[in-house]
UniProtKB/TrEMBL annotation:
Residues 6-336 form the FAD-binding domain. InterPro entries: FAD-bd (IPR002938), FAD/NAD-bd_sf (IPR036188), RIFMO-like (IPR050641). It comes from Kibdelosporangium aridum. GO terms for molecular function: FAD binding; oxidoreductase activity, acting on paired donors, with incorporation or reduction of molecular oxygen, NAD(P)H as one donor, and incorporation of one atom of oxygen. Keywords: FAD, Flavoprotein, Monooxygenase, Oxidoreductase. PANTHER family: P-HYDROXYBENZOATE HYDROXYLASE (PTHR43004:SF3), TRK SYSTEM POTASSIUM UPTAKE PROTEIN (PTHR43004). This is 4-hydroxybenzoate 3-monooxygenase. The keyword Membrane does not apply.
Length: 385
């Protein structure tokens, strides 16, 4: 049995755990991150890319944005294609005038790990937490040893163990839609994000770097990610993106394929005893509006400030209010993600109900194309977290 004490034990070295750990280290608080994967694995795990203005502020104000500012790309435009034609929304001139910064999540994670170690933090990679004791602030590890601290942050994502230690209500929604999430070794085909609505289903294009581009294809639930060859994938992307009409896609090998089900869950509360959840552990959001990593950073900042106020100043109030502070912001993001799902997907079929819903979808898109008030609403919520 090995025992190690730290003020805060953090389960998981994703964006939530690493931002939390970095802010706590800057406050002089001892913390230890326990991560089940290797350092190489978490530094190469491609996921998010679109960082909202609030995320860039959090990273900048806490000295965590050097790589982001050096290598991130600014995006301020997205476009919609479909039966209604094509239109662009330049959101830097809409809503609050904010933009996205595109910086691959794995690069951010790499930067955050380096800075956390630089600040004197400790990370145990290849170490799996099996159970969390929320009363004694303890982590039970797979090798049978136990780590104890004063507080535990559950930042272990949607498949972690920390959620199980919080006796909370879990509100769950399966949106009934799946995306085939692809990474192509190919330069972006378009300057910005493209959302294509087609009778075959939704297709999306999101720039990542000069040589790698993310694409999405709506597929039936349970679809086998290896069912299609690269050629079939590109053919379908061409059809749904209407490449014949609007211009060819820049193709290349598909280097990653996975199925992402559009599901959401929110826990309430997101704390119990000494345990506090942040990021995907607290709430899972469908990637339709690219909000997951941004919510993770938002909650990590609120939790870091609350823990620092408790540990350094002896004031427990912000920690007591943690769930009440974070949950309304999570629900706001969930609401917009849900709205996006309905904007991007209509039901298949020609029965009256399906046609009715598809007609509403088209009306929604036309309103977004034509109404400045609708565009302002979109821009504010698209970037906001
Ligand atoms: P993470 O990143 O999943 O990190 C959790 C960490 O905990 C570790 N872990 C454990 N460690 C020890 N013991 C255990 N028992 C453990 N169980 C798990 C894991 O190994 C892992 O390292 O959660 P975090 O920090 O909450 O961050 C959440 C984000 O990663 C996630 O919300 C986003 O990636 C979602 N997302 C996007 N978000 C955006 O804001 N913008 C985007 O453009 C965007 N695109 C995406 C996405 C997610 C995607 N997938 C794969 C679902 C695109 C995709 C395809």
């Amino acid at each position: 049995m090995s025992t190690l004490s730290a003020d805060v034990l953090i389960c998981g070295a994703g964006p939530a755990g690493l931002v939390l750990g970095n802010i706590l280290r800057a406050e002089g608080i001892r913390c230890l991150i326990v991560e089940r994967q290797s350092r190489a694995h978490v530094q190469s795990r491609a996921r998010a890319g679109f960082l909202a203005a609030n995320s860039v502020r959090i990273l900048s104000e806490n000295g965590l944005a050097e790589g982001l500012h050096a290598n991130g790309q600014h995006h301020d435009t997205c476009a919609f294609r479909g039966d209604h034609g094509e239109f662009e929304l330049k959101y830097s001139g809409l809503g609050r005038g904010e933009i996205h910064t595109v910086y691959p999540q794995q690069d951010l994670v790499r930067d955050l790990i380096a800075e956390f170690l630089n600040r004197g933090g400790e990370i145990r990679f290849n170490t799996e937490v099996q159970e969390i004791d929320p009363h004694d602030a303890a982590l039970l590890l797979a090798d049978g040893s136990r780590l104890t601290g004063r507080f535990v942050a559950g930042c272990d994502g949607q498949h972690g163990v920390s959620r199980q230690a919080v006796p909370a209500q879990v509100y769950h929604r399966d949106h009934g839609v799946s995306w085939f999430a692809l990474l192509a070794q190919a330069p972006p085909s378009l300057a910005g994000v493209m959302y294509a609505i087609h009778p075959n289903g939704f297709a999306g294009h999101m720039a990542r770097t000069a040589t790698v581009t993310r694409y999405y294809l709506q597929v039936p639930q349970g679809f086998d990610p290896n069912a299609w060859s690269d050629k079939q994938i590109w053919d379908e992307l061409h059809v749904r993106m209407r490449a014949d009409q609007y211009g060819e896609l820049r193709t290349g090998p598909i280097i990653e394929r996975r199925i992402v089900d559009m599901t959401s869950h929110v826990m309430d509360p997101i704390q119990h005893g000494t345990l506090f959840l942040a990021g995907d552990a607290a709430s899972l959001i469908s990637p339709s509006a690219a909000k997951g990593a941004n919510l993770a950073l938002m909650a990590a900042e609120v939790l870091a400030r609350a823990l620092a106020t408790q540990i350094n100043l002896g004031d427990a109030q912000p920690l007591i209010r943690y769930s009440a502070e974070v949950l309304p912001r999570i629900w706001r993001a969930q609401e917009f993600s849900h709205w996006m799902i309905n904007l991007l997907h209509g039901p298949f079929g020609n029965d009256s109900h399906s046609v009715f819903l598809r007609s509403l979808q088209r009306a929604r898109l036309e309103s977004l194309r034509d109404s400045r008030a609708h565009q302002d609403f979109f821009a504010e919520n698209y970037i906001g977290v």
